[in-house]
Amino acid sequence: MPKVRLRRLARWLGPWTPDTRLPPGVEAEDTHVPGPPGRAPIRVRTWTGDKPLAPLLLWPGLHYAGPDDPRLDRFGRVLAHAGYRVQAPFMPDFLDLMLRPTLVDDALAVFDALVADPAAPPGKPGQLSISFGSLLALRVAAARPDQVGEVLVFGGYAEWDAAMRFSLTGGGGVPHDPLNHPVSFMNLVEHLPGAPADPAPLLAAWRQYVEATWGRPEMKAPDAWPPVVRGIAETLPAPLQPLFLRGCGLAPGALGLVEEALRRAGGRDFLDARPYLADLQTRVHLVHGMDDDVIPYTQAALLEAALPPGVHAGTHITGLYGHTGHAARGPGALFKELGAMLHILRALAGLSPA
């Protein structure tokens, strides 16, 4: 494992470096790779630094900005500064804030194109996933067992319906992120009781709320996000406003609607990576923030239980990182977390060969 890679990761991902600082000497370039048959080409961002390169595929989570999200862009730059050639796709379904069957086909097309690229560095690419990107990293690793390096799943999930419920209620002493509320409604809209025949205006309004609030931690304050919801609600026809408000958590009854929608929707097998994990042949590291308010850390144990013998490389529940960045910790708690951070950084540094 290159010492320079580990040292640079520790410098830029540790709590001693502000999230606003960027490492020097990193360039970013956007290209397109072919999508699956009948699908449009998929945009991919590549970050490269000044050190010897090893291939790394970074799977974003469900976010309307994809790699344009400043937090993901910084993460890509840090990994590139450490010596990786980092590539992250703009997954069309994730950009739409939707979980669709086409996700896996798109992911396989992206992986195959990047591996076949003559400019790719030698070696098997490691994979690192964020949040719902765990589905993509694990399915690709299972489908291409001879072609992938190690996998690190950060904030991943095993049971998608449990993650949907958690987004509305929280649990285990961890409050849910109020800004994430609409995602469950958007992905279940056709099954929601009382949903309109044309859900497009509702979907657009929920997306408008997401774009106005995500990536702004101050919007989680109890007095910050409700005015945004009310302002958008006033632009909708009156019959759509009650469902919109429930979908943003500003009117009661959200959990009951989602429970009924989940019952109507039935199984969505494409969202569960566990049936495919028996085909894994590479080491898988599981990392989760104990204060993750989008996907609960208990999902890491479910993923660990589903991994076949011999591939589980470790599970680390950390208080240093939340769902999207550093978590606040005092000096005493920080000292206790340093061991976990070192394990995580070593896993990051070893995802691809030097």
Number of helices: 13
Query: How many beta-strand elements?
Result: 8
Beta-strand percent range = 5-15%
CATH class of the largest domain: Alpha Beta
Number of domains: 2
Nearest-angstrom radius of gyration?
20 Å
CATH homologous superfamily of the largest domain? Alpha/Beta hydrolase fold, catalytic domain
Question: What do these coordinates show?
Answer:
- With 354 residues, the protein is of the alpha/beta class.
- The protein has two domains: 3-159 and 272-349, 3-Layer(aba) Sandwich (Rossmann fold); 179-265.
- The protein is 39% helix and 14% strand.
- The protein has an eight-stranded mixed sheet, sandwiched between helices.
- Helix 2 links the parallel strand 3 (54-59) and strand 4 (84-89).
- The longest helix has 19 residues, at 331-349.
- It is globular, with a radius of gyration of 20 Å.
- The mean pLDDT is 92.
Short synopsis of the structure:
By secondary structure, this protein is of the alpha/beta class. The protein has helices at 3-13, 70-81, 92-95, 102-116, 134-143, 160-169, 181-187, 200-213, 225-233, 241-247, 254-265, 298-306, 331-349, and strands at residues 27-33, 42-48, 54-59, 84-89, 126-130, 151-154, 284-289, 312-318.
What is the fold's blueprint, element by element?
Layout: H1 3-13, E1 27-33, E2 42-48, E3 54-59, H2 70-81, E4 84-89, H3 92-95, H4 102-116, E5 126-130, H5 134-143, E6 151-154, H6 160-169, H7 181-187, H8 200-213, H9 225-233, H10 241-247, H11 254-265, E7 284-289, H12 298-306, E8 312-318, H13 331-349
Parallel strand pairs: 3-4, 3-5, 5-6, 6-7, 7-8
Antiparallel strand pairs: 1-2, 2-4
